[in-house]
Write a structure and sequence with these properties.
By secondary structure, the protein is of the alpha/beta class. The protein is built from 10 helices and 8 strands.
């Protein structure tokens, strides 16, 4: 079930044409299947996240496969699917239509038809991600989504919530993403969790970490959610640290709000933007890499099971630098490693 091929040497340099993390597995052989979704139609500030999956794939071949904390995640088999050509085509069309709407600061009567088409293309993307995720889950795989902007995992969350009713989401982000549409886009990256909480009843809990940029209406939504949305604002986490509360103690409290089955939904801008300077909407503050790793480890330490994940908003340096892809690839490997470790609990 996804064991490495006999000729594979995990200590050797990755071949240029190898799979993610330099691995030789096919999706059918692998236990973990990654869906690349190169889509960023509703990006409202910086762009480039549609190139995130490729950037992470290329950088992943430089990641050493033995992990001191999680052991040998690669041994279970990890494979990334080919990028769907239709998704790239939908993205190109939707971005073309969305650009004048974004430049106008939102939809106007003259731009309503274009906005409607963008929303329809987003719905097609959602359905494609849902169908693909459901198919691989039915085959007994663990499934992750690699975006793209943070609108792309809606279909994956839907599929996981059907398989694991009562699912909890652990959401790392600089932004709450709880807007009821944004700039007229029903499926905006800024609306992903409003859509999830209103349209996917199988999601029992949303626990947000690192939030430091949100609108007043989003804050009201959190307050009125009757505890279904629990948000740990970056300022509050930092204040507790300044008062001497250890991070692992904060992690234990955060994790205590999650149900047994946990889905990780990570926007890389939840990290300190020093680690992801080219992401679409960087915000000062955020978590360090070790803090995020300790957060995921805390889920496993609690005995909960990580059942799936997405990692979004990695945007490569337009000048050719690989730092963002490198950080994204290493965070991805940690997410996979801890997910697999949680299965053994």
């Amino acid at each position: 079930m996804g064991a490495p091929m006999p000729t594979f040497d995990p200590n050797a340099a990755a071949a240029a044409d190898s799979g993610i993390f330099g691995l030789p597995h096919t999706p059918d052989e692998a236990h973990v299947v990654i869906l690349p979704v190169p889509f960023e139609a509703t990006t409202s500030y910086g762009g480039g996240t549609s190139e995130g999956p490729r950037a992470v794939l290329e950088a992943s071949r430089q990641v050493d496969l033995f992990d001191i904390e999680t052991g040998r995640p690669y041994a279970r088999g990890i494979a990334m699917l080919e990028e769907p050509g239709e998704v790239r085509a939908w993205n190109a069309r939707a971005k073309q239509l969305a650009t004048p709407i974004v430049e106008a600061g939102g939809v106007t009567p003259e731009l309503q038809a274009a906005c409607d088409e963008v929303n329809a293309l987003c719905e097609r993307m959602n359905e494609a991600v849902y169908r693909a995720t459901r198919e691989w889950l039915q085959k007994g795989k663990r499934v992750g989504v690699l975006g793209g902007d943070h609108s792309v995992p809606f279909g994956a969350i839907r599929a996981h919530a059907e398989k694991y009713p009562g699912l909890g989401l652990l959401h790392l982000d600089a932004h709450a993403d709880l807007r009821n549409a944004y700039e007229g886009f029903q499926w905006s990256h800024a609306s992903i969790f409003h859509n999830v909480m209103e349209r996917i009843p199988g999601v029992a809990k949303l626990v947000q970490v690192g939030i430091r940029d949100l609108g007043e209406a989003e804050h009201d939504y959190i307050e009125q959610s009757k505890g279904r949305v629990k948000t740990y604002f970056d300022a509050q986490l930092q204040h507790a640290r300044f008062e001497g509360t250890p991070w692992n103690r904060q992690v234990d409290e955060i994790v205590s709000h999650l149900p047994q089955h946990v889905y990780l939904t990570f926007d890389i801008d939840g990290l300190d933007p020093v680690l992801c300077p080219h992401t679409g909407t960087p915000v000062p503050g955020g978590l360090s890499f070790p803090e995020v790793n300790a957060l995921i480890a805390g889920v496993v330490r609690s005995g909960r099971t990580i059942v799936g994940f997405d990692l979004d908003e990695v945007a490569p340096d337009a000048e050719g630098g690989e730092w963002d892809g490198n950080v994204g690839a290493r965070l991805l490997y940690k997410m996979i490693g801890w997910m697999l470790k949680s299965e053994a609990k």
